[in-house]
Amino acid sequence: MSLIPTLLGVTLHLLLFLHVSASHSGHLAAPRQKWPVPYRRYDERPDADSYCEALYPFCPTGDRDGRMPYLRETDRISVYRLQAPVWEFKYGDLMGKFHIMHDAVGFSSAETESNFTMEWYELFQLGNCTFPHLRANVSAPFWCNQGAACFFEGIDDAHWSQNGTLEKVGVITGDMFNAMAQWVQQDNHTGIYYETWAVQSHPGPDATVWFESFDCSQFVHRTYRKLAELGAKLSSRSQTNYTKVYLYSGEPTCLGNDSTIFGQPSMKNLAADIQSFYYTFRPHQSYVDLAFSLAEIYEKVVLHKNFYLYYNSEYWHLPMKPPYMQVIYEEVPLP
Ligand SMILES: *[C@@H]1O[C@H](CO)[C@@H](O)[C@H](O)[C@H]1NC(C)=O
Ligand SMILES: *[C@@H]1O[C@H](CO)[C@@H](O)[C@H](O)[C@H]1NC(C)=O
Ligand SMILES: *[C@@H]1O[C@H](CO)[C@@H](O)[C@H](O)[C@H]1NC(C)=O
Ligand SMILES: *[C@@H]1O[C@H](CO)[C@@H](O)[C@H](O)[C@H]1NC(C)=O
Ligand SMILES: *[C@@H]1O[C@H](CO)[C@@H](O)[C@H](O)[C@H]1NC(C)=O
Ligand SMILES: *[C@@H]1O[C@H](CO)[C@@H](O)[C@H](O)[C@H]1NC(C)=O
Ligand SMILES: *[C@@H]1O[C@H](CO)[C@@H](O)[C@H](O)[C@H]1NC(C)=O
What ligand 2 atom has the least distance to the C-alpha of 118? Predict the structure, then answer.
């Protein structure tokens, strides 16, 4: 899966951190902000810009129009929790060791004997969802950050069970499946942009959450919650952990969107700062050697404490705090 090949690269880039001056001009007097900032839903999904190029086609074996089968109400459908390490040739099974996992849900119909996989991932790979492109004649960083649901026939048992998890977590009726399918269409229509980072004030359960991520595992959680709401009983024999990529910061400040930041001469210092911040992380640069000294990287992180987060198509300034960034494989129980 293309999913997180870049993540390790990203991590290193991130830790390499910024040559950004601290002259962000933010601090607009806004009404009291609600935390976490609600993820923005849209009326419909726009076509992706032709500039964005997928390394792997999105959902190659799914239905062209994203249709899901209609199952009979008398059907009994087993639900599977699917999880596998993101495989990246270059890094071998390192991703598994760091618990960089991809999540999906499986369904198998007793009546039709067919089975299905459902997952949510980036249209243009994770690097493009996490960091934008700086284009010569476009001043605003350019994002290819759509994510979407993919539903296709078949479950690749070996892929999930060999180095990951394939576990039956419940049985639902055809009615529940059909209601869920409707919800998936709606969710897919309105939840358009991938958000890699979860941002909170510090590690641990008592932290203030500033932003929630919106990624493959969040889709799986929403699906389980929807099934539970429809009356499904789900349970697992083992701990259900998921990969989450955290940033830690003090209270974020909303800086504005493309037109407010990149369309107004008065904002040009901030615009330049954001450009130079993302220049460090441009998706096309080659991977930093893994042997890179972590100590050296850490020092740089401690020196500069800025992060410009792009969330809901707006930029936010994060005053970063130790431990700055973590990839955590943490438990989220089934509903
Ligand atoms: C997005 O990411 C892939 C793989 O990392 C890359 O090949 C592609 O050129 C990137 N750029 C765009 C604009 O999609
Ligand atoms: C979700 O949206 C994408 C992008 O439009 C589409 O390719 C996919 O088929 C849709 N998935 C479902 C399950 O509707
Ligand atoms: C950028 O400039 C080049 C050359 O002037 C032009 O061909 C291209 O269409 C421009 N791209 C955009 C997005 O304006
Ligand atoms: C899904 O269907 C395939 C093909 O019939 C079968 O090999 C596989 O074991 C099934 N997997 C599950 C989890 O039902
Ligand atoms: C499981 O991991 C091993 C090495 O750790 C690898 O050779 C194998 O291809 C992996 N299997 C799958 C299905 O990804
Ligand atoms: C950008 O923000 C301004 C000010 O909040 C708003 O008026 C404008 O509609 C926004 N533009 C887009 C494309 O959302
Ligand atoms: C799963 O998450 C729990 C709590 O978040 C943690 O204590 C445990 O170590 C995790 N398991 C693995 C295998 O990392």
Answer: 13
Closest-approaching ligand to the CA atom of 124? 1
Distances (CA, A) of 129 to 52, 114, 142, 227, 252: 11, 33, 10, 28, 20
Tell me the per-residue pLDDT of 290-332, one tens digit each, with 9 for 90 and over: 333 334 444 445 567 888 999 999 999 999 998 888 889 999 9
Q: Which residues of 286-318 are buried (b: 16+ CB within 10 A; e: fewer)?
A: eebeeeeeeeebeeebeebbbbbbbbbebbbbb
Q: For strand 241-249 and strand 197-200, is the pairing parallel, antiparallel, or unpaired?
A: parallel
Q: Is 317 a catalytic residue?
A: no
Dihedrals phi, psi of 212, to nearest 5 degrees: -100, 145
Distance 4 CA to ligand 1 centre (A): 13
Task: Transcribe 120-162 into DSSP letters.
Answer: EEESSHHHHHHS-B--TT-SS-B---BEEEEEEE---HHHHHH
For the cut 70, the answer to whether the pLDDT of residue 14 exceeds it is no
Give distance in angstroms: CA of 78 to centre of ligand 5: 26
For the chain, which residues make up each domain, given as ranges?
A: 5-331
The pLDDT of residue 201 is 98
Q: Give the type of residue at 76.
A: R
pLDDT in tens, 267-279: 999 999 898 888 7
Has 216 been annotated as catalytic? Answer: yes
Residue of 13, 24, 102, 317 marked active site: 102
Instruction: Tell whether ligand 7 has an atom less than 6 A from the beta carbon of residue 331.
Output: yes
Ligand 1 atom nearest to CA at 142: 13
**What gap in Å lies between CA 84 and CA 101, rounded to an integer?**
5
* Cα 259 to ligand 6 centre (Å): 7
Residue of 129, 144, 150, 216 marked catalytic: 216
Q: pLDDT tens digits, residue range 63-101?
A: 988 999 999 999 999 999 999 987 654 455 555 666 778
